[in-house]
Amino acid sequence: MALHHPQAEDSARCALCGRAAPLTFHHLIPRTCHSNKWFRKNFAREDMRSRGLFICRACHSFIHRQFSEKDLGRRLNTREGLLADPLVRGFIGWVRKRR
Residue ranges per domain, the chain? Predict the structure, then answer.
């Protein structure tokens, strides 16, 4: 059963770049990984479904262009993990300068 995450309010801020923008829900453990044996062994089903961040479309698109689903789920499955990645930090620095 897929869970629906409503769009956040337009005035909310992205959990990564901090910009005020319409937000989308980013699953920190991608849904395509939920049936994978490694993920089922290491994460509770409810944790996989609910663990996520509300982020802007620019950050969301960037993350999914740069990293595989498995890499996101295994290595970048926390806000801190994403912010520690040099590619993500570089993008955030760039996108904060845009309107």
Answer: 23-95
